[in-house]
Design brief:
By secondary structure, the chain is of the alpha+beta class. It has two domains: about 170 residues, Four Helix Bundle (Hemerythrin (Met), subunit A); about 280 residues, Alpha-Beta Complex (paralog of FGE (formylglycine-generating enzyme)), CATH 3.90.1580.10. The protein is built from nine helices and 14 strands. The strands form five sheets. It has a four-stranded mixed sheet with strand order 12-11-10-13. A three-stranded antiparallel sheet has the order 3-6-14, covered by helices on one side. α7 crosses α8.
Length: about 450
């Protein structure tokens, strides 16, 4: 089987000279490419061109798409070089063809796609060597290079989700995450008050994370850790999927129409539950965060438990705000880049870790595992921040704003550190379950609970 754990590299690009910055950029680009190649080389050519789910592109489309985006932005735009393959731009335009239609396109064959990526990357590294990393917003602090590294890692996580959906023998391998530990409390009070949400200084932050702005959040309680399989099993075994009281109108309609009765990839095996993970059936670990649940399922669980999902602002305040100084930090543990002691990121493992596994990554309020393990659904729709401006193109964020998408925060075990920070925003349809998504619950604080 193919080992997929990746070397850990820092993501901070501030306060370094040009050559140090170029080295960091090159490391980020190499790390993303190594992962793309590992995920596609893990299967034979028949499987790399096959569509394993109507929800996903063939792996070969994702592979050539990341190369095409790299060519468009770094070879042609930043570098001003001649096109490598201008004839394929339309094939790999994510807005031109739906995922379900992509298998019928005249896509590059596997060997041709890999050769194309090598040719593009050679030109990109030359552009990196000869481009002043200042003078315009696109190249200041190597933003365009960081954007492309993030873009490829996002597709790598998508390809990892495709591997979860494929049938057949397992092909991926990685060591297990560290064991969990008991928690001091089930929930934590987050005090009321203003905090700075978003960023205007993080050099590789994307447009939807900007600008920094002050928002006042009332006091609330937030779960110390994500909801576990054991927690969710109690909801299921209490008849939660058969009780309309806990579900929103669209949520109830969806689970009925789709005949959903449990989280995706859960299966009954006699008197116990097992789950399918990358081709392997495993006993359900009750201390592991539940994953592959939709927003609707998360919302229904919260209602059943007498709680609710946190808003996006509540989640970010819990993850970033120093309650003593009021300053917003880059991560729950501080401003340092993520290390393996802080969070389950970077596909170093192929599953969420048990709750309590990363005490070094806790916030100042001792809220744990806000970064990594599972994306966390929030109750918020995906909207622009006050003062938002498109950069560098509308199709990254702006076209998705509105009530159709719900915001997820925090990253998963399949998210690379370069695409995961305290301000990073993910979004998806509330019915989606193939993504590595879980949740934690919140509740309003009563006056007598506020010190």
């Amino acid at each position: 089987m193919t080992a997929v754990s990746q070397p850990w590299q820092p993501t901070d690009v501030e306060d370094h000279g040009p050559e140090q910055l170029r080295t960091r950029v090159a490391e980020a680009l190499v790390r993303s490419r190594d992962r793309s190649i590992a995920l596609t080389d893990a299967v034979d050519d028949d499987e790399v061109v096959r569509q394993h789910s109507k929800l996903m592109s063939p792996l070969i489309w994702d592979l050539a798409h990341v190369g095409n985006q790299e060519e468009l932005w770094l070879v042609r735009d930043v570098g001003g070089r001649e096109p490598v393959r201008q004839d394929i731009d339309e094939l790999y335009d994510a807005f031109k063809y739906a995922r379900s239609d992509r298998p019928g396109l005249p896509l590059l064959a596997p060997a041709e796609a890999r050769a194309y990526l090598r040719q593009v990357r050679d030109k990109v590294l030359d552009v990196l060597d000869h481009t002043p990393l200042e003078g315009s917003r696109l190249v200041d602090n190597a933003f365009a290079f960081g954007m492309i590294a993030q873009h490829e890692q996002q597709h790598d996580e998508t390809m990892l989700a495709t591997h979860q959906l494929r049938a057949g023998a397992p092909v991926l391998d990685a060591p297990p995450p560290p064991p969990g530990a008991s928690l001091a409390a089930a929930e934590v009070l987050v005090p009321a008050g203003p905090f700075t949400m978003g960023t205007s200084t993080e050099p590789w932050a994307l447009d939807n994370e900007r600008p920094a702005h002050t928002i006042d959040v009332p006091a609330f309680f937030l779960d110390t850790a994500p909801i576990t399989n054991g927690d969710y099993l109690r909801f299921l075994e209490s008849g939660g999927y058969d009780d309309q009281r806990w579900w929103s109108t669209p949520g109830w309609r969806h689970i009925r129409d789709a005949e959903i009765t449990a989280p995706r990839f859960w299966e009954r095996d006699g008197d116990r539950w097992v789950r399918l993970r990358f081709g392997v059936h495993q006993p359900l670990n009750r201390r592991e965060p539940v994953v592959h649940v939709s927003f609707h399922e998360a919302e229904a669980y919260a209602a059943w438990a007498g709680r609710r999902l946190p808003t996006e602002a509540e989640w970010e305040k819990a993850a970033r705000c120093d309650p003593s100084s009021g300053r917003s930090r880059r991560y729950p543990w501080g401003d340092d880049d993520p290390g393996p002691q802080h969070a389950n990121l970077g596909q170093r493992h192929l599953q969420p870790a048990e709750v309590g596994a990363y005490p070094a990554g806790a916030s100042l309020l001792d809220i744990q595992q806000l970064i990594g393990d599972v994306w966390e659904w929030t109750s918020s729709d995906f909207h622009a921040y006050p003062g938002f401006t498109v950069f560098p193109y509308a199709e990254y964020s702006q076209v998705f704003f509105g009530g159709d998408y719900k915001v997820l925060r925090g990253g998963s075990f399949g998210t690379d550190p370069v695409t995961c920070r305290g301000t990073f925003r993910n979004w998806d349809y509330p019915i989606r379950r193939q993504i590595f998504a879980g949740f934690r619950c919140a509740r309003d604080a009563r006056p007598d609970e506020i010190g």
